[in-house]
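go over this chain:
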Amino acid sequence: MLETEFRRQFDRLIGGGAEPLAVALSGGGDSTALLGLTLKAAKSRDVYAFIVDHGLRRGSAEEANAAAKRAEGLGAKASVLTWRGVKPKTAIQERARQARYDLLGTACRQNGISKLLLGHNRDDQAETIWMRRGQGSGWRGLAGMTARAYAPLWPQLYGVDIVRPMLGLGRTDLRTYCANN
């Protein structure tokens, strides 16, 4: 059921073709499920797993390398993207997000990839809408995340579509998928 629904969304959002795809891989359950499902659905396409090491805490490089090794074991072409330079003292999450998308967008463009898949799921969507509601968002914010967006951050994601094929899938189902696979 989960694989069937994922395949339906994959086909609707990405379609056929041979161009390579990228998965933003954190190493957690959601993105690991996304990578596994994408590798099955992508058929003969190259699938890249891009892992961002923000370098904000001790051990992050080792975790990123372990995620890359796991991705390669599944059949993806893995790359660790490292955020270099001085780290911010304030607004850390926002600046890390900007740096992450800058690294991901650059890696996509360098590898001829126009679609970056993210592991957001139904639970993330509910959390997003709930948080935006609490912040007094208008109707646009309460619409939630879209399943596909062209270059949603400029200039970081210039020429790159963000694709979220798991918005209809729940976190519990994704964890079960990971455990079974």
Notes: Residues 58 and 64 are 12 Å apart (CA to CA). The longest strand covers residues 47-53. Residues 92-110 form the longest helix (19 residues). The helical segments are 2-13, 29-41, 60-74, 92-110, 122-134, 139-142, 171-180.
